[in-house]
Design brief:
Layout (H helix, E strand, L loop, with lengths): L2 H20 L6 E7 L2 H4 L3 H9 L5 E6 H8 L5 H7 L1 H9 L3 E5 L1
Parallel strand pairs: 1-2, 1-3
Length: about 100
């Protein structure tokens, strides 16, 4: 996992997205991301979870492909999570919401 990419996502959300969502300009927003291992590659994950708890992000979905391989004998990728939340994404985009994709 490239932590540099995560820093850019974190900076973007902090600088542009979070102030706008707090004052109610963006509405629904979700972040879909993925990495291989939670213990090795999950950078800023707790911060993003806190953003959901604080109603800054509406949804945070992360896929751990290698961890799922160990647990479920199959890899789970970001696109699997997006498919699972397809109706939510469509409704959000149809009503002017935003989603961020990384990984």
């Amino acid at each position: 996992m490239d932590t540099i990419k995560w820093r850019y996502v974190d900076k973007y959300l902090t600088k542009y997205h979070i102030p706008n969502i707090i004052i109610g300009k963006l509405g629904w927003s979700g972040l879909f991301t993925g990495c291989r291992y939670k213990s090795k590659d999950w950078c800023f994950g707790e911060e993003f979870q806190n953003q959901v708890l604080n109603n800054v992000l509406s949804l945070y979905s992360v896929a751990f492909s290698r961890d799922d391989m160990i647990l479920n004998n199959r890899k789970t990728y970001v696109q699997h999570h997006m498919k699972d939340h397809g109706a939510v994404i469509w409704d959000a985009l149809s009503s002017g919401g935003y989603f961020f994709l990384s990984g």
